[in-house]
């Protein structure tokens, strides 16, 4: 007998028709189907609002769950309550999402977990803190073992800055290629330092390298502060004493290309800073309150400006954020002009500062955007941390050189003046080919799309008067680097021949 008959009663109508009545809502269905099927009755049970659901203690699949194995399919698997696994997942969530430890004491989170997993007992924030530190130490131990045994060379990037509380900080990031030829990145130190002096920076880096067991450093990428040059020179000597550097540390000091691009652009837009400041003041005023934003958005609709971009305020020391601010604000030029007529305080506030943006200011802004846009994309190209960028550095040099050549012949005096100053700053850092880190050139040779032919073309483009000398120097350094790695490889092969253990060697 079908299970649905526990919820239906059979009866016969006056006309002699056999029907079934729902015990909960009195709805009736015919029983005289061709196949004798009860599908119509079962379908009703699924939607009947008056039928009591009863308790779920007799369900047989309480611990079955659908698990996604791909976007197209699912897999049915069992689920076992594991408090340790749930606790580890909670710790991971707090770390990955940068949540405070006290989230476990929040009423909303407690209620959510009581519904989602009532059997799990929430630990205190102090316990969660210990769990996070335990996980960090565990992962650090794994990474230290990896640095000491499996990784041949590590490249480092570092930066320093001062917080609003006047505390100096330093961050140190390690980059390397693993055994499966994937680029890896880990922040291995984030710490306060006594001052932005070369001695303080070098000692902090040395202490971190010793703590992580990192011996073999290939390059250290830093900005152009003089303190960094002092720090790199100190570390070069230390690594040379331990025979842990390549080519006696000749290539270890890598200047940050993104930072140099930042200096070039900042130097170029100094002459138009008044126009930029006026636009910045207008954006700051509008963003200062929700009511102003609402009124401004109304002007955008009235002017029929087809853009959904939100006004953004820049960080004056970061030109890429200035570019984004100007790019968005320029689209709303008509809305700003309309707004100044409706809000007298807008006019008074800006007049007390740098002034209200004029027609000439917006024209200058358009020129600035035109100049900054290619630099913005070039900066994105070389500042990526999830893909290799070393082979792109020389290409950036040639691209910037060609941009300057094109702008000098554009006929726009404002752009010519702006880019001439930028070119002066460019020449300060990249004007002499023999002073550029040789790895910038060597990386091009190992790019199968470029090789020696593109390098020769680029060097002749950038340094036509000394191109032959630079190419000879590159060829010499390439052979020296090859010989050093070849010698190291032979020593390792000899060691493997005498030992039962094997050593992994990755260039």
From TrEMBL:
<dbReference type="InterPro" id="IPR036236">
    <property type="entry name" value="Znf_C2H2_sf"/>
</dbReference>
<dbReference type="Pfam" id="PF02892">
    <property type="entry name" value="zf-BED"/>
</dbReference>
<dbReference type="InterPro" id="IPR052035">
    <property type="entry name" value="ZnF_BED_domain_contain"/>
</dbReference>
<protein>
    <recommendedName>
        <fullName>BED-type domain-containing protein</fullName>
    </recommendedName>
</protein>
<dbReference type="GO" id="GO:0008270">
    <property type="term" value="F:zinc ion binding"/>
</dbReference>
<dbReference type="InterPro" id="IPR025525">
    <property type="entry name" value="hAT-like_transposase_RNase-H"/>
</dbReference>
<keyword id="KW-0238">DNA-binding</keyword>
<keyword id="KW-0863">Zinc-finger</keyword>
<dbReference type="InterPro" id="IPR012337">
    <property type="entry name" value="RNaseH-like_sf"/>
</dbReference>
<keyword id="KW-0804">Transcription</keyword>
<keyword id="KW-0862">Zinc</keyword>
<keyword id="KW-0479">Metal-binding</keyword>
<dbReference type="InterPro" id="IPR003656">
    <property type="entry name" value="Znf_BED"/>
</dbReference>
<dbReference type="GO" id="GO:0003677">
    <property type="term" value="F:DNA binding"/>
</dbReference>
<keyword id="KW-0805">Transcription regulation</keyword>
<dbReference type="Pfam" id="PF14372">
    <property type="entry name" value="hAT-like_RNase-H"/>
</dbReference>
<feature type="domain" description="BED-type">
    <location>
        <begin position="1"/>
        <end position="55"/>
    </location>
</feature>
